[in-house]
Specification:
Structural class: alpha/beta
Largest sheet: 5 strands, mixed
Number of strands: 5
Number of domains: 1
CATH topology: Protein-Tyrosine Phosphatase, Chain A
CATH superfamily: Protein tyrosine phosphatase superfamily
Radius of gyration: 15 Å
Distance between the termini: 43 Å
Number of helices: 6
Shape: globular
CATH class: Alpha Beta
Mean pLDDT: 94
CATH architecture: Alpha-Beta Complex
Low-confidence stretches: none
Strand content: 5-15%
Strand order of the largest sheet: 1-2-5-3-4
């Protein structure tokens, strides 16, 4: 097995992957593949989530950041906590996950737009890999507002 088998896995680059909920075995695979940080944006939801993901990840020697973003209410505070977790991860190999990679691709695309120089079009293209054909007005409004806040000078 490998992390690339996690539901909706997207390899961003050699040090960053985004995904849906990994199993306990897939979290072990992440450690074996050199991931050093796990960022989880999904609220605990038994039986779909491991009973003690934080404990397992820490016993594997990985850093763990838990930001339970409520599906129907993503907040500026959630995004600020995500920015802080990304800063804490630094250059470490990082796996960011939620339930199905929707929260993560939204947050990561916004982060990359604001901090990594991605254009709004690049951010939208990244998010579309998971979001294409979906209809979640709360999220569409949140993403549009955050993209506008993080707009680069001169970008339309």
């Amino acid at each position: 097995m490998s992390t690339e088998e996690i539901f909706n896995f997207v390899k961003v680059d050699d040090r960053l992957g985004t995904a849906g909920q990994p199993t306990e075995d897939q979290l072990r695979d992440a450690a074996a593949e050199g991931y050093a940080t796990i960022i989880n944006l999904a609220p605990v939801n038994p039986p779909y989530t491991p009973p003690d993901e934080a404990g397992l990840v820490r016993t594997l020697g990985l850093a763990y950041h838990y930001i339970p973003v409520q599906w129907n209410n993503p907040t500026d505070g959630d995004f600020a906590a995500f920015e802080q977790a990304m800063r804490a991860a630094g250059d470490s190999k990082t796996l960011i996950h939620c339930a199905a990679n929707f929260r993560v691709t939204a947050f990561y695309s916004l982060y990359a737009h604001k901090h990594l120089g991605w254009t709004a079009a690049q951010a939208e293209a990244f998010r579309a890999r998971i979001w294409a054909g979906s209809d979640y007005p709360v999220w569409e409004a949140f993403v549009a507002r955050k993209l506008a806040e993080g707009r680069e000078p001169g970008e339309s």
